[in-house]
Prior knowledge:
Domain HTH lysR-type: 5-62
InterPro entries: LysR_HTH_N, LysR_subst-bd, WH-like_DNA-bd_sf, WH_DNA-bd_sf
Organism: Sphaerisporangium rhizosphaerae
Order of helices and strands: HHHEEHEHEHEEEHEHEHEEH
Radius of gyration: 32 Å
CATH architecture of the largest domain: 3-Layer(aba) Sandwich
Largest sheet: 7 strands, mixed
CATH class of the largest domain: Alpha Beta
Distance between the termini: 69 Å
Oligomer: single chain
CATH topology of the largest domain: D-Maltodextrin-Binding Protein, domain 2
Family: Belongs to the LysR transcriptional regulatory family.
Keywords: DNA-binding, Transcription, Transcription regulation
Shape: elongated
Amino acid sequence: MEPAPTLREIGCFARVAQTLSFSRAATDLGLSQPAISQAIGRAERALGVRLFERTSRDVRLSPAGTALLPYAEALLETASALRAEAARQAAPPRTLITLAYAPPAGPLVAQAARRLARRRPAVQLQLRPAGRRAAMAALAAGEASAAVVGAPFPTGYTTGARFSVAVAHLAVPAGDPLAAAPALRPAQLTSHKILMPAHRPRGGMWAQLAAALHGPHQHHIVGEEIDDFAALLDQVAAGAGLLPVPHLVASSIRRPDIGFVPLAAGRLRLTYGLAWPPDRATPELMTVVHAVQESLWTR
């Protein structure tokens, strides 16, 4: 009994069937024409049927060849999938690092994730947007490997890759007269409420702005902290108050009910940094820290 045709012979059969030319199949497969003819002959003997009807001028599939071609193609696809999966299984496993981050840091952590994906071996960064409280809870529970959080930085954690985000615009309702102003100073806001967090650490951006507004009556407290500026724009549109926003928010969000006006209130900046538990400083986590630092250098 003839042995079953090899994958190489089945591949030659499928290619000749697709091109209906021994010479073109030979060129496509990088073989000589006699090698293609011999492979087809061995496949025909193994299967016990003629796969092609040959004349001096053309090549056509035989009825048996027409019936067998779909099985040959399916077999070749399965073999290709087998090789691909074997290669995937043989490759070094990709380390998964979960990074919680404040939304204003989104572009930076996305850039770091792209850098890590290009490394060999790759480090897969799972991004998890979260406010400060949720990020710190995820760190404490081991659900996040590290977190990008705002200053003041938590005690008991290692921090690095610090950076700042400029807060230079004020979000106002589109119909408010302030929306037409070329710029706004704190003195112009005395009759307006400013959306503020309850937690305003001394020396931080929110404390600096609150001092410039001269009095608590202009403050509308919207939460313990403000992490997601984009989510608060609905309150601005509804007339609950005006919102100081980072430049990224003002330059990337377009809403017909919101205007972004330059805010001249001094050098307002939110400071962020990467924090992680010192006992979890694995080589993979340090690779993430370095990727974030590299992203800071090139942004």
